[in-house]
Every structure is written in structure tokens, then in C-alpha cells.
């Protein structure tokens, strides 16, 4: 079945939503999108953040919730607007107003894109400060800057990895795992997240977990064999992987 494009004035000339299935098929899956909204409004910080990341990537066309549904929003960034679900039902006909739903989802896209740009710039400045502090071995200052950077941008795997390394330098090994897990949620192929997780297990003398992590590293990233040996076997003196 060929793709059907739905033009929407709210998206302006260059903003088009492409659906590769009939609307009825899309509606069968709308519950999954609704669940994302519920998660974001759940009050559970980690659950809300995870749902927000998934929602952003979904609307940017980077994620498909099901094989038979694909939505691509030609936009820098947007997130699901909860008001969209409040206006979906048409009480008179029992049908869903597609244009109204898409308008609700995308009407604030430009503002959100601008907000995103500002937050990215702030995060970049804070990361630069963190790197400088790290290089002069002021790890407490580096950690503070990374914390603030992640407050601005929560979907950057490298920031979580950099903060994990800083925690390793501070000896906060137990706190390394959460950063590595977040990095892997965002980028499942993150080499640094796996490397730092293995290092934390080694320092905590979690032998079984360490051996498993190291074996996974060597299997997945044979091209980094020397770096893995250097970083995991070094007693001290490593700066950055």
C-alpha cells in the first residue's frame, strides 16, 4: 500500500506527516501513544523521562512503535501534546478528527524547537566547563557541571558516559551504573557505557558481573581491544576512554 500524505496547515509548508497505513490501522495502535502520555504525566521521574525520550524519537521519525505504523514529522523536535488526546473524539460522529489531532501535536513545535536549541547551547557550555575541570582534576566541579548539563539535555548518551567516568574518578562506583544504563537506553551500541560499567564492577569486586561485561566488550568491540585492556587493567592514570 502506498504512503498517504496528510497536509496540515498547522505544520506549514515544510511540515508533513506521512502515514504508511490507513488511518483505521493507525487508530488500533493509538493506545501505545496514549500510554506514553500517561507515563509522562505519571509523577514518576524516571518513568516520565524514559517516556519523553521515546516520544521525542518517535515523533522525529527515529522510532517505530509497531512494524505496521510509521509516523515521520519533518520537524527539528517536538513532543506529544496531551491536549491532542483530549480533542480526538468527535461526540457527534464518533469519529476522530485527524487534522485536529495532528494540529494539537504539532502546533507548538516551533516553540519547542527553539527551547531545545537554547537548552542544547546551555548544555554545550556546561560540558565545556566540565571537560576543563576534569582535565585539571577538579572532579567535583566536573560532576557539578555534568549534572547541570544533563538537566538541560536528558537524551545525550555521551553526557551520561562523561558523568560516569567522572564518578569513577571520584570513586563513586555504585553511582556509575545508573548513568551507564541511561546511556545504553539512548544508544544501545555505546562502547563507553559498557566500558565504564565494567570498570565499576571491577572496582567493586563484582567478579561475575565484571567478567560478563568484559567478555561482552571484547566480543562486541574487538577493534578496541587495546583500549579495553589499558582502561580496565590500569590501576590509575587513565584520563578518558
TrEMBL record:
<protein>
    <submittedName>
        <fullName>Tetratricopeptide repeat protein 12</fullName>
    </submittedName>
</protein>
<dbReference type="InterPro" id="IPR011990">
    <property type="entry name" value="TPR-like_helical_dom_sf"/>
</dbReference>
<dbReference type="GO" id="GO:0005737">
    <property type="term" value="C:cytoplasm"/>
</dbReference>
<dbReference type="InterPro" id="IPR043195">
    <property type="entry name" value="TTC12"/>
</dbReference>
<dbReference type="GO" id="GO:0070286">
    <property type="term" value="P:axonemal dynein complex assembly"/>
</dbReference>
<dbReference type="InterPro" id="IPR019734">
    <property type="entry name" value="TPR_rpt"/>
</dbReference>
<dbReference type="GO" id="GO:0007288">
    <property type="term" value="P:sperm axoneme assembly"/>
</dbReference>
<dbReference type="GO" id="GO:0005813">
    <property type="term" value="C:centrosome"/>
</dbReference>
Amino acid at each position: 500500500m502506498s504512503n498517504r500524505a496528510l497536509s496540515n496547515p498547522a505544520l506549514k509548508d515544510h511540515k508533513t506527516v506521512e502515514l504508511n497505513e490507513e488511518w483505521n490501522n493507525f487508530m488500533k495502535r493509538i493506545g501505545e501513544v496514549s500510554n506514553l502520555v500517561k507515563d509522562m504525566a505519571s509523577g514518576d521521574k524516571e518513568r516520565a523521562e524514559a517516556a519523553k525520550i521515546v516520544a521525542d524519537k518517535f515523533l522525529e521519525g527515529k522510532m517505530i512503535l509497531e512494524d505496521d505504523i510509521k509516523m515521520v514529522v519533518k520537524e527539528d523536535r517536538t513532543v506529544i501534546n496531551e491536549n491532542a488526546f483530549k480533542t480526538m473524539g468527535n461526540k457527534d460522529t464518533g469519529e476522530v478528527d485527524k487534522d485536529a489531532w495532528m494540529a494539537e501535536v504539532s502546533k507548538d513545535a516551533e516553540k519547542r524547537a527553539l527551547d531545545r536549541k537554547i537548552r542544547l547551547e546551555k548544555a554545550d557550555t556546561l560540558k565545556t566547563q566540565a571537560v576543563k575541570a576534569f582535565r585539571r582534576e577538579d572532579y567535583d566541579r566536573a560532576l557539578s557541571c555534568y549534572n547541570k548539563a544533563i538537566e538541560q539535555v536528558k537524551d545525550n548518551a555521551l553526557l551520561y558516559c562523561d558523568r560516569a567516568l567522572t564518578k569513577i574518578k571520584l570513586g563513586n562506583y555504585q553511582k556509575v551504573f545508573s548513568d551507564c544504563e541511561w546511556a545504553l537506553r539512548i544508544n544501545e551500541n555505546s562502547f563507553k557505557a559498557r566500558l565504564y560499567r565494567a570498570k565499576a564492577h571491577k572496582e567493586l569486586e563484582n567478579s561475575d558481573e565484571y567478567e560478563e561485561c568484559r567478555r561482552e566488550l571484547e566480543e562486541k568491540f574487538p577493534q578496541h581491544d587495546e583500549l579495553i585492556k589499558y582502561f580496565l587493567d590500569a590501576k590509575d592514570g587513565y584520563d578518558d576512554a
